[in-house]
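User: Sequence in, structure out. Go.
Assistant: Echoing your sequence, followed by the structure tokens.
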Amino acid sequence: MREVRISDVTMKQSGNKKEVSLTFKEKLEMAKLLDRLGVAVIEAEGIEQTKIDSLRIKSIASSVRNSCLAVPVKLDPESVSVTWKALKEARHPRLQIPAAISPAQMEYIHHLKAHSMLSAIEDTISACAALTEDVEFIADDATRADPEFLYEAIRSAIRCGARTITVCDAAGAMLPEEFSLFLEQIYANVPELQDVTLGVSCSDELSMADACAVAAVIRGAGELKAAAYPVNIVSLAKVVKVLNAKSDLCQAYCATGMTEMKRITEQIRWMCETGRSKSNPFDTGVQDEAESVTLTAHDDLTAVMKEVAKMGYDLSEEDSGKVYDAFLRIVSKKGSVGSRELDTIIASTAMQVPATYVVESYVINSGNTITATAHLKVRKNEQPLESVAIGDGPIDAAFLAIEQITGQHYELDDFQIQTVTEGRNAMGEAVVKLLHEGKVYSGRGISTDIIGSSIRAYMNALNKIVYEEQE
């Protein structure tokens, strides 16, 4: 009995849905959840902004242990080179070559005629195959393509090194019987498909995507594109359930586990549906996690910096040395250092810069019968600035006031509060991590007033961003 592989497209498809907005941290968390679930392939968005998207792909690659990580490339050699540079550290990397091959889409998207389109497909697949054995050709809008051109494109893709061929019903206009017949004709006209994996992708315009996917498996498809969250494509939970229940009829099985399916898909749904309010500086969607790393005195500079990079930081050689020296001092007293402590070390030692923004004063009003408000006065290069904002709580209002003063929203990657001394006048410490252009900047603030320490931590991280932009 053959195995049917599931390729999850939730992360990639969410980027095309305006109502779904995933933060950098949420994408990392989603990749970990899908990897734990056991999907064969996790598909990520391609590279548009080289610096930001490359870091995103590298971070996801370091988080995925078992699944294959697939990233699309454009039909040009430079895109292949840039994407592979970001993806190559993944344990199981895959390069995807999506190409619109219906007459209208071919000219509208790629501005190419049929002959030039074939040449572009062949050149791109050959370039990808020279870097990795796992290359996938995706025939977008295949059901509306000219059949002879579709067959020729698939033959060319296989000849140039594609090991997975995916045909898409992007319109979602076919019934299961029609889609099954469509695949039968492809198999009949492209015998080379017997040596590679045929994948399918079905839009859910007629609410028939799941049925079409099962029909494709019965016809011989070996890979299905599905999503853990509804994004107008095959449902991951439903199709895995059918394949498990009807493996004898389908003459195929799916290795994606059902044990954690409900819990993980609910977590992913929660992330996708917990969007950021326009009046809220916090980016929500990832629940607080336990320590994800524990470092000891046995870990050398390379090991510590590897964990620092996984957390999203890009430190200079000088700052790396400062962080490692501080790490050694703390680990000699405590025996081990966790991820939260490592965040604090980085915030207090790395990239200490002159303050562009300085807090002059703040007034916070909050209570159980009034809406929290924050009035901040800030000085930027001797220029006084101030703002009043309301929020869901005092810290929420304070951060929103800072955003109004700066005119910028930075993704709040993490926010931590803890006490550093005991007693009535205990000092509170806050660590704020802001994400800007794919890089994490952390700030630390200490005060007997926890709101004050949070404002100082945010300003500390903000000043690092502003300083680097000016440089």
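User: And one key feature?
Assistant: Residues 2-273 form a domain with the TIM Barrel fold (CATH 3.20.20.70).
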